[in-house]
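Model the whole thing, not chain by chain.
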Amino acid sequence: MPIPSVQYSDILAAHERIRSAVNRTPVMVSRTLNARTGAEVFLKCENFQRMGAFKMRGAYNAVSQLTEEERRRGVVTHSSGNHAQALSLAARLLGVKAVVVMPKNSPQVKVSATRDTYGAEVVFCESTVKSRHETTERLIAEHDYTLIHPYDNDRVIAGAGTAALELLQDYSALEIIVAPVGGGGLLSGTSIAARGFNASIQVYGVEPRLVDDASRSFRSGKLESNTRIDTIADGLRTNLSERTLRYIRGNVNDILLVSEREILDAMRFLWERMKLVVEPSGAVSLAAILTGHIPVKGKKIGVIVSGGNIDIEGFFTLLAQKIHD
Amino acid sequence: MPIPSVQYSDILAAHERIRSAVNRTPVMVSRTLNARTGAEVFLKCENFQRMGAFKMRGAYNAVSQLTEEERRRGVVTHSSGNHAQALSLAARLLGVKAVVVMPKNSPQVKVSATRDTYGAEVVFCESTVKSRHETTERLIAEHDYTLIHPYDNDRVIAGAGTAALELLQDYSALEIIVAPVGGGGLLSGTSIAARGFNASIQVYGVEPRLVDDASRSFRSGKLESNTRIDTIADGLRTNLSERTLRYIRGNVNDILLVSEREILDAMRFLWERMKLVVEPSGAVSLAAILTGHIPVKGKKIGVIVSGGNIDIEGFFTLLAQKIHD
């Protein structure tokens, strides 16, 4: 197995690099949650991160390390999710042009957040992997943009690992850390940070059963793919890369699966009992704990709550119908 | 004007009394909010309080000061809102029986929270003020329970003031503090805490325009009533009492009004941008700032976000229809 190239020292360096530009997010606890699990659970709330997700950490770490020449030319990525907004904001803060390739059927709310709120240029493609790649490659060929991949990028991974680093700095006695896994950037960074901080910490990844490629890849040792991607946890529909699979196999204890219903139940617990707006992907780690998939009794567990970007338009439309002004 | 009987020292004493049983809630800030208001805004997040609202502070402060004899007999209140749950939980923690009088048409979710989650006895009455009072009086006559009124009670008011006290302990340079006003217990306690901490702090109350009795009473000096109570801010449908009017006139700079739409917009900002589940009543203070009703530019402002208990059943029912497990 090749030696991983992201080291614990890279995560420490990333943290120094990004700390003035990102939020040191709070860690939330709940008496009800501890009583229900028989454990001490510490939620690292990346829903409170700038632009609403941990993605800001990796994007800022990557853009801030570009050469002057690369900064002058700009950056590009393909994403309709949190990475698009993170890259756009990080680039804007650093005075770098950002271009985001999005399928032309992307929800208007996501296009608007990326373009209008964070000032990136949006280039539309067909909603196929082929078109997405071709469009991105064409933009790079024409403009010499630097690609900042959502997760297949060591600087992005090192940045993502800073969430777990901060959690461990605050609660150094944690015995288990749990993170969601989609493309594997967050789980890679989390596992490298945790093992570097304390080699005896157990690290678990959790993914929706509907998109269980990471679990199967973890077991087989090669990249597996999904036949369906229709999980409600829209941030976790992506596949591992060779790079993230290598990090995860080297550092993670196991990858566990949760059902769609279990994700929704965990999300509801976070909203109703803990008053936290968390997106479905952000509730996946907690789902594995609430359902007992990870044995936590008597333990101190850190949970990465990855983000809080969810469309609440429908809920507020309903509420607006109730007012009598 | 009579000398108010709740003093700053009572709030300090209340804080010592309750601090091991209540949460020291976090204070949240937002770059977006500061940029939008041109101010520094500090949100005291009582939605993260135990049972989801500041009411826990007053209820616990009141129940913990009962005599042994009073504790043995039990406590009673009339409320279908946060005070019912707060009194039930406080009483349970202190080993005291709690009885809550609720209109028989109360939503099942509120009955269940009070009875099943927090273990109080619920006694139903007709949904009139007369029936509520008669039922409560009858229970007191029969069982010698001690009435813990939701706001017309100095111990409840002193407890409510501990939220502002903690906020000022954390951010002593605040120049303005804003709190919602319904029955006036929170605003009374907040204003006494703020003036006691620093007599030059400006204190504002905010209420829905639809139930503007506090604003009119503040101006006229006598208790005014409402003709309508159908504000979405269901925690603020109550009227001031002689006691709370006296405290408020003695300590508050002004009471401002916000529309139902402004409440909803502020609530949406809190959910969407700050990822905080806040109930409509809890968003009322911020509404007065976001709409410019309070001149805050260049100032440091503390905002009491009073609670986060809102029925999200409908939203989750919609989400559940989207899963394909």
